[in-house]
Design a protein that fits this description.
lyase; 4-hydroxy-tetrahydrodipicolinate synthase activity; two-stranded antiparallel sheet; DapA-like; Aldolase_TIM; 8-stranded parallel beta sheet
Length: 334
């Protein structure tokens, strides 16, 4: 793991390749328990069978808002244990977002103690007084820890940092070395790079990669928090092949591969279910049930309670049917 002082140099060398944002498999009445065997299988699958070099733990896909502090700590510990057993060099990223700075600090200190490589802090979900408030939040954590920090700029927070606000956090907090820009606004990511060229930016909009942004140094050579394991199998490594072409700057071949494999239309065919609840269509969400249903279609274990915990609702039959049909067209299942 990188100390705060080493964070920026470490990040330039190690934040590379496909990362996997892990779901949390639930079991028991109303999903009150975690299926630890299923979770261990998921980690081994991502790191061992798919050979993805980055893990993203207890973040949006993992439904961090529905987990207890102890559950979040144990999920990270198991990911480190199983991931490093499969690949000692796997980079483990922990999301320690919380509604209070003290809870975030406790989770960040724990991540540092158990050997996570970097911690990402989502823009606070409640009562954030703009960029100044988020800066104060980051400073509170950075002054009490010694680990690499990243920003996680997601619209699910209800507040998205402007490029100038993110650049100021990077300028004032030396431990901050990277950001996940999850708002699907490439123009803002481009502006952020102009303001803070040393900050490693991961952009959720994949079109920027085939536009040559990696070659130009605007985005970093990593997909830091994707659910890459939902876009390929060990037998058909569609996403890995696309990413390797992008990383090699073979952009025309990457575009041809995406078209011929249907990777470029897969998101459209899945529909909005991963990130949009129809009853609140204006709000960006990480719908845990949708991610887990997709995983189950691919044969991955999701626990005996395949839904999300409250306050999310169960995925309707319409969503399940559209996701399954998309995977059939994609060719990942019969």
């Amino acid at each position: 793991m990188a100390t705060a002082q080493e964070a920026r140099e470490w990040a330039r060398e190690h934040l590379r390749g496909i990362g996997d944002s892990l779901y949390t498999p639930f079991c028991g009445p109303d999903g009150d328990d975690i299926d630890w065997d299923a979770y261990r299988t998921l980690v081994r699958y991502c790191v061992g069978e798919l050979n993805h070099p980055l893990l993203w733990c207890t973040s949006g896909v993992g439904e961090f808002w529905a987990l207890t502090m102890e559950e979040r700590k144990r999920l990270l510990e198991v990911a480190i244990e199983e991931g490093r057993a499969a690949n000692p060099d796997v980079v483990v990223q922990a999301c320690t977002a919380a509604t209070s700075a003290k809870d975030c600090l406790e989770l960040t200190r724990h991540a540092q103690e158990v050997g996570a490589d970097i911690v990402y802090i989502q823009t606070p979900m409640m009562e954030a007084h703009g960029g100044a408030g988020v800066l104060r939040f980051f400073r509170y954590i950075a002054e009490r820890t010694d680990i690499a920090l990243g920003m996680f700029n997601s619209p699910s927070s209800g507040y998205v940092l402007t490029p100038a606000e993110s650049a100021r956090i990077y300028e004032e907090i030396p431990a901050v070395c990277a950001t996940k820009e999850g708002a699907f606004r490439p123009a803002a990511s481009r502006r952020l790079h102009d303001l803070a060229p040393g900050l490693l930016v991961w952009e959720c909009d994949r079109t920027v990669y085939r536009a040559g942004w990696l070659r130009d140094g605007i985005v970093c050579p990593a997909q830091l928090g994707t659910a890459g394991y939902l876009m390929e199998t060990p037998q058909r490594r569609v996403f890995t092949e696309w990413w390797e072409l992008i990383a090699a700057d073979r952009l025309i071949e990457a575009m041809d591969h995406a078209r011929e494999s249907r990777l470029d239309v897969f998101d459209l065919e899945v529909g909005p279910w991963f990130t949009c609840y129809p009853g609140r269509a204006d709000y960006f969400t990480h719908w845990g049930s949708a991610f887990k249903y997709a995983a189950s279609v691919l044969g991955l274990p999701v626990g005996s309670y395949p839904h999300s915990r409250p306050p999310q609702v169960e995925l309707p039959a319409e969503g399940r049917a559209q996701i399954e049909a998309a995977y059939k067209r994609f060719g990942l299942i019969d």
